[in-house]
TrEMBL record:
Keywords: Aminopeptidase, Cytoplasm, Hydrolase, Metal-binding, Metalloprotease, Protease, Zinc
Descriptive protein name: Aminopeptidase
Organism ancestry: Archaea, Thermoproteota, Thermoprotei, Sulfolobales, Sulfolobaceae
Record: active site: E272 (proton acceptor)
Subcellular location per the Swiss-Prot or TrEMBL entry: Cytoplasm
EC number(s) stated in the UniProt entry for this protein: 3.4.11.-
Residue ranges occupied by any ERAP1-like C-terminal domain in the UniProt entry: 485-774
Domain Peptidase M1 membrane alanine aminopeptidase: 200-416
Single annotated GO MF: zinc ion binding
Length: 784
C-alpha cells in the first residue's frame, strides 16, 4: 500500500460536466501504480513532471511508471442524472443540485483516487463555477476569486487526514442559516425556501456536539459543520466530515411536525455527528469492521438523546427501533456475523443492515451494562486518543475497554461478533431448582446450533444476580421456594427468554423495557412455532389496558403484520381500547402510540376509517400526529387516487409528501398498480422513495396479487431502473425481501420465480424472502 500525503484538486464546472486537474503527493517504490477510477475520461498523466503511459481498465487507472513524489492527472467527469451515487444531480423544481455520495466505493466516480478507507490523505479542493452558485465542501472557504471569464473559484482550506469516502462537494443556489455563537460554526444549507425548517436541527446539533466533546474528551476537529438537505438521497444521511448530507425527512422539522418526525431528525443528526469522532477521526481499516462505525454511531445517538430529550425515553427507542429488528433478522439462516469478511467491494452495500447497525449497537449496550458505564466510556476515550487521524480494528476497541474495566472482554466480544445469530434462554423450574438452558434461536429449524458466552442477568425473588452462561445449561438451587423470576433484566441482553409457563413469565413485575422484550419474544416464538396462537393471544390479553407506549406500538405492529399477511382483523378490541387510553395522553410517547394505533385501525377497519376520513377536508389544520392516519382513512374509504396524487405533487415538504405516499399505497383499487409504477419510472415519485413505495404496495392485501404480478411480469424493467438509480443491486435486494408477502397466497410459485431470477449479488435477499415465505405459510395454518 502506498503512503498518500495529499490531493490537490481543481475542478472547472460547465453545467453538470467538469474538467479536473489533480496532483497526488505520495511515496511509492512500485514500478506501476493503480488508482480507482470509473466513468471518468482520463486525458493525460504525469509522473514527477514527465508524461507517462497509462491505461483505463475496468475500475482502474493503471500508470506504467514509478512515481516518487508527485502524480498529476487531467481528466473529465460528469454529474450523473440517472444514479444517486458518486457525483450526481439531485433534481428539484425543474433544477438540479450537484451533490456527492461516496461511501463505500463511489469517490472513484468523482476523481481518480485510492478509494480505500485505510489510505487516508489531506485534501485541498478548488472549484470553478458560474457566478451566483454556491459551493460547499468539507472545510470552510479560504477565499473566493473571480476570473476573467465571469466565473468564480472557491478555494477551500485543507482537510485533516481522512478517507476518500468522506470527501464532499455540493454546488447549488444554497439557502443557509448558521449558528456561529461558538466553535464549531454550525451551518444548515437547503434548497431555496426551506432553511427556516432547520432551526430545530441546528439546536440539536449544537447540544449533541457539546455532549460528545464532554463524553469523548476530544473537541470536534473542524472549524465548521454543514448540515445539508439533499432533494434526492439514497441513504438517510451521510457523515462526510464537516459536510453532512441528509434526505429532507432526516433533517427538517418544525413546530408543525409530528413527534415522530422530530425524533427522527434528532436521532439522525446525533448519529451522523457521532461519526465525526467514530468513523471520521478514527476510521476502520477495512469494511469488515463497518459495523463498528455504524453500531457505535447508533449506540451514541441514543445515549446523547437521553441527555437532550429525557421525555422521549431514548433507551426504550433503542430497544424498540434497533434491537428488536436486529433480533428478527438475526434469527434467519441468511444472517451474517457482525464482523463480516468483505472480499468484493460490492458486497459492502449488503453490510448496511440491521445486523451492522441494530445488533452491533445492542451488543455495545450489553457490554456497557456488563463492565459499567464509566469503564466503558474510559475505554472509548483511550481508543479514540490512541488512533485519531488513523485506522483501527474492532479488537483495538475491545483491548481498550478491557484495560479500562480491568477484565478481559475480548473473548466475550469475539463470541458475539464472529458468530451469527443469538440464543434463546429456556427457563424451567423444578421445585426449588431453576434450570437455564440455551440454544440458537431460529425462526426456521435449520439444524444449526451455537453455544454463546451469555452475560445473563436475572432476578429471583426480587434479588438481582448475574452469571456468564458459556455452556448448554446450568442449574440454580434455591434455599427458599421460588416466588418470582425474571431473566434479561432491563433488556440489556441480546437474547430471548422462553419461560415454561406464562404464569412464571408474569411472576415478577416487569419494567417498560422488559414488558416490550417479553411481548416481542412471544411474537417471535409464535413465528418460530415454539408456542401456539392461543398462548400468544393469552399474552396479549394481559396487556389490553397497557399504557406502555412501546408495548402498545409493538403489539399494534404485530397485529398489523397479521392483517397484511392474512387480511384478517385480529385484536380489534385491543386496538380500540388503546385508542381510548392514549387519546388522553398529551406527552410525546403517548402521541407516538396514539398515532401508531389510529394508523393501524385506519388500515384495517373500514368502519373506523369511515369516521376518521371525515377529517380529510380539514387536513391542513389537524394535529400533525394524526395526519397520516387521516390520509390512509381517506384512501381506504374513497379509493380517490387522483386527489392523493395531486396533493403529493402540490406539497413541497417531504414530510407531507411521504404521508401521501402512505395513503396511495393503502388504496384498495387494483387499477392503481400500473399508475404507481409509471410514476416511479418517470421519477414523479422520488427515486429515493422507490423501495418504500414498492414495499408498501406489496404489503397491501387488497392489491397484493396485482402488485406481485406486475413485479414478476416486469422484473427486468424494475431491476434495470433500481440498479441504475442505486448504482448496484442492493436496492433491488430490499424489493426482493418485500416479495416474501407475495408468497403468502402462492408460496411455491413465488419461490420458483425467485430461484429463476437469482444472481450472485441478490442471493442473500432471495434466500431471506424464501425463508420468510415458509415461516408465513406455516403461521397461516396455525392462526384461528
Amino acid at each position: 500500500m502506498h503512503n498518500v500525503e495529499k490531493y490537490e484538486i481543481f475542478l472547472d464546472f460547465n453545467g453538470y460536466d467538469y474538467q479536473g486537474i489533480e496532483k497526488i503527493y505520495l511515496t511509492s517504490n512500485e514500478e506501476k501504480l493503480e488508482l480507482d477510477s470509473l466513468n471518468l475520461e482520463i486525458e493525460s498523466v504525469k509522473s514527477d513532471g514527465r508524461e507517462v503511459k497509462f491505461e483505463a481498465k475496468g475500475e482502474k487507472l493503471i500508470i506504467y511508471d514509478k512515481v516518487e513524489r508527485e502524480l498529476e492527472v487531467r481528466f473529465k467527469g460528469k454529474a450523473s442524472r440517472d444514479s444517486i451515487l458518486g457525483i450526481y444531480v439531485a433534481p428539484y423544481n425543474g433544477k438540479g443540485m450537484i451533490t456527492t455520495q461516496f461511501e463505500a466505493i463511489y469517490a472513484r466516480r468523482f476523481i481518480p483516487c485510492f478509494d480505500h478507507p485505510a489510505m487516508k490523505a489531506r485534501f485541498r479542493l478548488s472549484v470553478r463555477v458560474e457566478k451566483g452558485l454556491k459551493v460547499i465542501s468539507n472545510m470552510p472557504v479560504e477565499k473566493i476569486e473571480e476570473d476573467a471569464n465571469g466565473k468564480v473559484i472557491y478555494h477551500f482550506q485543507e482537510t485533516p487526514r481522512m478517507s476518500t469516502y468522506l470527501l464532499y462537494l455540493g454546488i447549488d443556489d444554497f439557502e443557509e442559516i448558521a449558528d456561529d455563537s461558538k466553535r464549531p460554526t454550525i451551518i444548515l444549507a437547503t434548497v431555496p425556501g426551506k432553511s427556516k425548517r432547520g432551526l430545530f436541527a441546528i439546536n440539536v446539533a449544537r447540544k449533541v456536539i457539546e455532549f460528545y466533546e464532554k463524553y469523548f474528551e476530544i473537541p470536534y476537529q473542524l472549524p465548521k459543520v454543514h448540515l445539508i438537505q439533499v432533494p434526492e438521497f439514497a441513504a438517510g444521511a451521510m457523515e462526510n466530515w464537516g459536510a453532512i448530507t441528509f434526505r429532507e425527512t432526516a433533517l427538517l422539522a418544525d413546530d408543525s411536525s409530528s413527534v415522530y418526525q422530530k425524533f427522527r431528525v434528532a436521532e439522525v443528526v446525533a448519529h451522523e455527528l457521532a461519526h465525526q469522532w467514530f468513523g471520521n477521526l478514527v476510521t476502520l481499516k477495512w469494511w469488515d469492521d463497518l459495523w463498528l462505525n455504524e453500531s457505535f454511531a447508533t449506540f451514541m445517538s441514543f445515549k446523547s438523546l437521553k441527555y437532550l430529550f429525557p421525555q422521549w425515553d431514548s433507551e426504550g427507542h433503542l430497544i424498540y427501533g434497533e434491537t428488536l429488528s436486529a433480533l428478527e433478522d438475526d434469527s434467519l439462516t441468511t444472517t451474517h456475523p457482525i464482523e463480516a469478511h468483505v472480499r468484493d467491494p460490492y458486497e459492502i452495500e449488503q453490510m448496511f443492515d440491521n445486523i451492522s447497525y441494530g445488533k452491533g449497537a445492542s451488543i455495545l449496550r450489553m457490554i456497557e451494562a456488563y463492565v459499567g458505564e464509566e469503564n466503558f466510556r474510559r475505554g472509548v476515550v483511550n481508543y479514540l486518543n490512541s488512533f485519531k487521524f488513523g485506522n483501527a480494528e474492532g479488537k483495538d476497541l475491545w483491548d481498550s475497554i478491557s484495560k479500562a474495566a480491568g477484565q478481559n472482554i475480548g473473548e466475550i466480544m469475539a463470541d458475539w461478533i464472529t458468530k451469527p445469530g443469538y440464543p434463546v434462554i429456556f427457563v424451567n423450574t423444578y421445585g426449588n431448582s431453576i434450570r437455564f438452558s440455551q440454544e440458537r434461536f431460529m425462526l426456521l429449524d435449520s439444524g444449526l446450533n451455537e453455544i454463546y458466552k451469555i452475560p445473563l442477568t436475572y432476578e429471583i425473588n426480587g434479588k438481582f444476580s448475574t452469571l456468564l452462561l458459556d455452556k448448554e445449561s446450568t442449574e440454580i438451587r434455591l434455599e427458599e421456594g421460588l416466588k418470582s423470576i425474571k431473566v434479561n433484566v432491563n433488556r440489556t441482553g441480546f437474547y430471548r427468554v422462553l419461560y415454561d409457563s406464562l404464569d412464571l413469565a408474569f411472576s415478577s413485575k416487569h419494567n417498560v423495557y422488559e414488558e416490550l422484550g417479553l411481548v416481542n419474544d412471544y411474537w417471535n416464538f409464535l413465528l418460530a412455532d415454539l408456542i401456539d396462537a392461543r398462548t400468544y393471544f393469552d399474552l396479549l390479553n394481559r396487556f389490553t389496558n397497557t399504557s406502555n407506549s412501546f408495548v402498545s406500538r409493538e403489539i399494534t405492529s404485530q397485529l398489523l403484520t397479521l392483517y397484511y399477511l392474512f387480511k384478517k382483523h385480529y385484536g380489534k378490541d385491543f386496538l380500540v381500547n388503546q385508542v381510548k387510553i392514549f387519546r388522553k395522553f398529551n406527552d410525546d410517547l403517548g402521541k407516538l402510540a396514539y398515532s401508531a394505533v389510529i394508523n393501524a385501525l385506519a388500515t384495517m377497519d373500514e368502519e373506523f376509517a369511515l369516521g376518521l376520513s371525515t377529517l380529510f377536508d380539514q387536513y391542513e389544520n389537524i394535529d400533525s400526529n394524526m395526519k397520516e392516519a387521516v390520509a390512509i382513512a381517506y384512501a381506504v374509504t374513497t379509493n380517490d387516487f387522483n386527489t392523493l396524487l395531486e396533493k403529493y405533487k402540490k406539497y413541497t415538504i417531504d414530510e407531507e409528501k411521504n404521508r401521501m405516499l402512505s395513503a396511495i399505497s393503502s388504496l384498495r383499487d387494483p387499477s392503481i398498480v400500473n399508475k404507481v409504477f409509471s410514476l416511479i419510472f418517470n421519477r414523479t415519485i422520488k427515486a429515493q422513495d422507490t423501495r418504500f413505495v414498492i414495499s408498501s404496495l406489496v404489503h397491501n392485501p387488497h392489491i397484493r396479487e396485482e402488485v406481485c404480478g406486475y413485479l414478476m411480469n416486469n422484473f427486468d424493467e424494475v431491476k434495470k431502473f433500481i440498479n441504475t438509480v442505486y448504482g448496484g443491486p442492493w436496492g433491488l435486494g430490499s424489493i426482493v425481501r418485500s416479495m416474501s408477502f407475495c408468497g403468502v397466497d402462492r408460496p411455491k410459485e413465488i419461490i420458483d420465480f425467485l430461484e429463476k431470477v437469482k444472481f450472485k449479488e441478490i442471493e442473500r435477499p432471495i434466500k431471506e424472502s424464501e425463508e420468510r415465505i415458509k415461516i408465513y405459510s406455516r403461521l397461516k395454518k396455525k392462526m384461528p
